[in-house]
């Protein structure tokens, strides 16, 4: 058994950068897909709305862990062997898109009806309405809950450990396997997660206060 | 694509899936009930408690909400056992889920309790209600009615999150899936089935919470209006 030493903590911190990278991939991917989902949810065509809503129901009704297993083991057995970071990035993107899509739909719908009507009167087409009138206002409303959701993304990257991607939680398990000091190690791991998530939580709360200041 | 789906393992292994799903239901129902209790008490402290009572509750909520459930489960199961407190995987799972659920419920219930106006408490005082009666009938039930949608989504999220307890080999649905797929090498089919079972469970939970809401909030059922 190896004594717990400073190198182990350096190793954990290095692994934390992978957690951040994976969070970034999930957030960027989730934002792109999520925006599409949100716009589909407010589409004029019923079939498009139903499709997006079905996607959200499906993802929000399934554990992220199962989505990870499906994309890693499932696709692997079908012959599409993904490396862990791609499988994890894909799963987290699908997951984040469902939640961000639903959050952003709410923000788009919160833009007052009169704004649509006014832009209609000005003769803007649907694309111009979104680009110049609705989305800029929706973005303002969307920032606080989006920052709040980033906390969920960072925390959920820990699940990528189950498919062997060495991020913070997996690194904690590896260090534990050689030193067997689980209480210390997982407390340190939790502290590192806390250091990443808490600033985001505080920011989300501050932004929320700012958005609702006028009400 | 030459892959052929083969669900034939189901004929033999379906009782395993049923048993796994049943344990998932048991784990989550217990965790939801206890978590709601913890969260409600903490929320009352956060709103009405003294400053010295509020501080530890605030720390608890922030610590839990800003760390992953997976790590919390590891601390309870591996961490506590290394300190000499040996718990079974199922008990550890319930403890971790309750602690986790409690923190989220605290925040949701706090919002509900804060929405109860002071005048309501004064009116309860005038009617001669005891402190316990006031808290139960004037504060908690209406507060819960207001935040019930948020509470029930949190409950469903907890049910889905309980899949993480498979990592300490609590033999619930996801752990069953891992076991069956390692026996049969039919991982894609196994996880598709389990995903569908989870979907069905989350639908059933939503339905269940809606029914409980109907029973619990008689005023809303009769008038059909928001509080």
- Portion of residues within helices of chain A: over 70%
Task: Spell the H/E element sequence of chain A.
Answer: HHHHHHHH
For the termini of chain A, the CA-CA separation is 60 Å
The secondary-structure class of chain B comes to mainly alpha
Helix content of chain B: over 70%
Q: Which residue ranges of chain B are poorly predicted, with pLDDT under 50 across at least 5 consecutive positions?
A: none
Say how many strands of chain A there are: 0
Task: Choose one word for the global shape of chain B.
Answer: globular
Distance between the termini of chain B: 55 Å
Taking pLDDT < 50 over at least 5 consecutive residues as the criterion, the unreliable ranges of chain A are none
CATH class of chain A: Mainly Alpha
What is the string of helix and strand elements of chain B? HHHHHHHHH
- CATH classification class of chain B: Mainly Alpha
Number of helices of chain A: 8
Would you identify the CATH H-level superfamily of chain A?
Answer: MetI-like
Number of H- or I-type helical stretches of chain B: 9
Major sheet attributes of chain B: none
Q: What is the arithmetic mean of pLDDT of chain B?
A: 92
Structure write-up:
The complex is a heterodimer of chains A (215) and B (227). Chain A has helices at 6-41, 46-60, 64-77, 84-110, 113-121, 126-156, 168-179, 182-211. By secondary structure, chain A is mainly α. With 227 residues, chain B is mostly helical. Chain B has one domain (9-223): MetI-like fold (Orthogonal Bundle), CATH 1.10.3720.10. Chain B has nine helices and no strands. The longest helix of chain B is centred in the first third of the chain and has 40 residues, at 9-48.
């Amino acid at each position: 058994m190896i004594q717990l030493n400073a190198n182990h903590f350096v190793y954990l911190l290095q692994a934390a950068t992978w957690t951040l990278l994976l969070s970034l991939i999930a957030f960027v991917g989730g934002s792109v897909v999520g925006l599409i989902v949100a716009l589909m949810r407010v589409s004029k065509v019923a079939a498009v709305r139903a499709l997006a809503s079905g996607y959200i129901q499906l993802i929000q009704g399934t554990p992220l862990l199962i989505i990870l297993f499906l994309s890693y083991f499932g696709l692997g057995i079908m012959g599409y062997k993904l490396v862990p970071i791609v499988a994890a990035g894909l799963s987290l993107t699908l997951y984040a898109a469902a939640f961000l899509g639903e959050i952003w739909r709410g923000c788009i719908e919160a833009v007052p009806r009169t704004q649509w009507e006014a832009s209609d009167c000005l003769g803007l087409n649907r694309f111009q309405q979104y680009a110049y009138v609705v989305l800029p206002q929706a973005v303002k409303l969307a920032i606080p809950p989006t920052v709040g959701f980033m906390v969920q993304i960072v925390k959920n990257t820990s699940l990528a450990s189950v498919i062997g991607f060495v991020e913070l939680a997996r690194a904690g398990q590896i260090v534990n396997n050689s030193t067997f000091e689980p209480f210390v190690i997982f407390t340190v791991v939790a502290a590192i997660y806390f250091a990443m998530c808490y600033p985001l939580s505080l920011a989300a709360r501050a932004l929320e206060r700012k958005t609702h200041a006028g009400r | 694509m030459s892959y052929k789906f083969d669900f034939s393992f189901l004929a033999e292994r379906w009782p395993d899936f049923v048993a796994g799903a049943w344990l998932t239901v048991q784990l989550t129902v217990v965790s939801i009930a206890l978590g709601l209790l913890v969260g409600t008490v903490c929320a009352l402290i956060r709103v009405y408690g003294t400053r010295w009572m509020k501080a530890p509750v605030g720390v608890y909520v922030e610590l839990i909400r800003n760390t992953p459930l997976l790590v919390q489960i590891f601390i309870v199961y591996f961490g506590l056992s290394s300190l000499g407190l040996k718990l079974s995987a199922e008990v550890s799972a319930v403890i971790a889920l309750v602690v986790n659920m409690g923190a989220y419920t605290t925040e949701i219930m706090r919002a509900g309790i804060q929405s109860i106006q002071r005048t309501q408490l004064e009116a309860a005082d005038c009617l001669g209600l005891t402190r316990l009666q006031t808290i139960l009938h004037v504060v908690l039930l209406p507060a819960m009615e207001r935040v019930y949608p948020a509470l029930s989504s949190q409950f469903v999220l907890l049910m889905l999150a309980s899949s993480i307890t498979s990592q300490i080999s609590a033999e619930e649905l996801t752990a069953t899936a891992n076991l069956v797929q390692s026996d049969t090498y039919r991982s894609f089919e196994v996880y598709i089935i389990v995903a569908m079972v989870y979907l069905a469970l989350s639908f059933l939970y939503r339905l269940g919470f809606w029914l409980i809401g109907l029973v619990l909030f008689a005023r809303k059922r009769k008038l059909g209006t928001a509080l």
